[in-house]
Amino acid sequence: MKKYLREFKEFAVKGNVIDLAVAVIIGGAFGKIVSSLVADVVMPLVGVLVGGLNFTAWKIILKKAVLGIDGVATTQAITLNIGSFIQNIFDFLIIALAIFFMVKIIGKIKSRLVKEEEEAKKEEQPKPLSKDQELLSEIRDLLKNKQ
């Protein structure tokens, strides 16, 4: 049992698991923001452009609601919520577009950093010694060994 607890502890505190957890939390929050953008900003504008149509209310009624004597629905209507589906498609497209641009930006930043690191490594590498410098180094080393 202790072995499993130790293995689980090692797994849970690895950087990848923590990075994944942070990404899921941020992704959930980002999804809410994009859903609000689509529902509250984009879809009303699209509705105005297509003549005042409210997509979220766009439904196909398969079976009408059954009303009781008092006018209250005893059985709810069965509907295909096409408007909600369209809104979810817009959500997906906007999220995919935002992630695409984020990946492109992160890729450019990463390639710049890699290029800078490679240039720094090239600058750090010692320049090859000339024949005179090699001879002087050998003489210096021989003198050190004599002492």
Notes on the protein architecture:
- This protein has 147 residues and is mainly α.
- It has one domain (2-136): Non-ribosomal Peptide Synthetase Peptidyl Carrier Protein, Chain A (Orthogonal Bundle).
- Helix content is 71%, strand content 8%.
- The protein contains 4 helices and 4 strands; from the N terminus they run ααββββαα.
- Strand 2 (66-67) and strand 3 form a beta hairpin.
- The longest helix has 43 residues, at 82-124.
- The protein is elongated, with a radius of gyration of 33 Å.
In short:
With 147 residues, this protein is mainly alpha-helical. It has helices at 2-12, 15-49, 82-124, 131-146; strands at 60-63, 66-67, 73-75, 78-80.
Q: What's the count of strands?
A: 4
Largest β sheet strand count, sense and barrel closure: 2 strands, antiparallel
CATH class: Mainly Alpha
Mean pLDDT comes to 83
Q: Please tell me the total number of domains.
A: 1
Strand content: 5-15%
Computed CA radius of gyration, to the nearest angstrom: 33 Å
Q: Uncertain runs with pLDDT below 50, 5 residues or more?
A: none
Termini separation (Å)?
A: 63 Å
CATH homology superfamily name: Large-conductance mechanosensitive channel, MscL, domain 1
Silhouette = elongated
User: Could you say which structural class the secondary elements and strand pairing correspond to?
Assistant: mainly alpha
CATH topology-level name = Non-ribosomal Peptide Synthetase Peptidyl Carrier Protein, Chain A
Please report the number of helical segments: 4
Strand order of the largest sheet: 1-4
